[in-house]
Structures are given as C-alpha cells and as structure tokens.
Amino acid sequence: MKKKILLIAIIMMFLVTALFTGCGGSSSKTIVVGAKDYTEQDILGNMLTILLQENTDYNIEYKHEMSSNVLFAALQSGDVDLCIDYTGTLYSNYLNYSDIKGADEVYDISVKDMSEKYKLDVLKPLGFNNTYCLAVRPETAQQYNLKTFSDLAKVSSDMVFGGGFEILNRNDGIPKLKERYNMSFKEELAVEGVLRYSAIENNETQITEAFSTDGMLLQYNLVVLEDDLNFFPPYHAVPLIRQDTAKQFPEVVEELDKLAGVLNDDKMRELNYQVDVEKKNPHDVAAAFLKSADLIK
User: Fold this and answer.
1) CB count in 10 Å sphere of residue 245
2) What is the pTM (predicted TM-score) of this model?
3) DSSP string, 46-100
C-alpha cells in the first residue's frame, strides 16, 4: 500500500512539473532584439521590442548602439536573435556583391544567400528605402551648379567630405564610390550622427553623408544630389532573424510580418524628424506609430 501511495505521489509530482514546464518553457526564453547606433535604428529597434512585448508572452531584451559589423557578429553568435537591417547592407557589406542590381533582385539574392551562408532569414520589407545619399548646402549647390554625383566629381577635390566611420571604410562606401565616379576629396573626416549636420552648417565640411529618410535633411534644408550612376544599392529595411529562433518561435515571425509595407520614405523621415529635431523619445515615437497602425493596443 505504501509503495502504491509513493508511486501515485511521484506521478503527481511529474504531472505538476510537466504542466509548469509546458506553461512557462517558451516564455522563459529571452529573445534579444538588436539595433545599430543611430536614430532610425533606435526607432525601429524599439518598434520590434514593443511589438513583441505587447503581442507575445516572451521576455524581450533590447540591445542597441552597435555598429553594423558588431550587430552582424552578434546575430551569428546568438547574442542577438533579430533586428532590422537593409538589403543594400546585406548585399554589399555582408555578402560582398559589388555589381548593380535592381531592388527586387537585391532582395531575392539577399534572402537566398543569407539563409544558405549565415542561417539568417530575411523577412518581408517594411516598405521604405533608406539608401545612402550625398548632400550639400543650397548655396554650395548653386555656386557649383550641383545636381548629380557626376557634377560633384568635377569639383570634389576642393571640398571636405564628412561622413560616418563605416561609409568611409566599408565595401559599399566612399572608397568604391570614388572609383566609380573618378572622384577625390580635399579631406575626408569621420563625423558621427547629428554632428555631421553641424559640421556642414558651419562649413567645416562641404559634403555630408546622409540617409534618404533622415529627418535632419529637412531641418537643415540640404540639397540631396542624384546618384546618376546608381552606385548605392537599394537599402530596403527588412527584419533579419536567426533561423533557429524563427523555427522555435514561429509566432515571432508572424508578428514581424505584420510590419511588412507599413512604412514609406516620407513616414520614416517624419519619425526620424520627431526624434532628432523635436527631441521626442524613440520608444515613445515607436509606440505611437504602432498604435496608429493598429499593431498594438
């Protein structure tokens, strides 16, 4: 009789343990969202974090202020599970392609190669193209009649270029741009973030790197030059997720897919403007957008 009672007790303990493990196993996993070290990435990283916090039961951790290569390494090591990246970065910087392709082809190649080479899934685009651009002050454009990169190449040796460390060194950045356009600069300065805009406003630089969705372009009324030889590939924003994370938590992918097509260039530029110029909190801007898009309550 005692053996029977002991056996029943063991079975009950097993069932209780299994019940609690079944209820809490998946939610005990911490899913880490990563983001790079500039405004747009912080907004988008907050969007992913808030979306998953509000619509799933998982623990969500947010890590940001990373360079592209640091974030990519974190994805590969498993320190980060998912992030927003850009097709041009995948295609040029991680996969090392240099030939010119259209937006759809760049996306398709990125999907295939990132999966095969790095076990990372590229999901559906968010809807905007944040490609690199070069910008000058209106008076500079008028003085030299600058409309295109080719126009700039003719006078660039008299000008100081200001841009982030990455664009000054990466495969899809300034070194190859100068080759394509036979361009040279009087000096190249590594100037990060919003400091690029104060530098060009103060005429410490005459040309600045920018992103096409950058809200500071509006604030400083800069003239964006046309990339007439199509050097910069399309940079459509896409969620990037580790395949093991996607397989283990398919509902996370379902949530990320809700972001497909919800943004365009103008809307993303407006969100960046709210943070950079109006000094709103990136978390608050992201949350307000998700509510306006009916993605969270």
Assistant:
1) 21
2) 0.77
3) HHHHHHHHHHSSSEEEEEEEE-HHHHHHHHHHTS--EEEEEHHIIIIIIS---S-
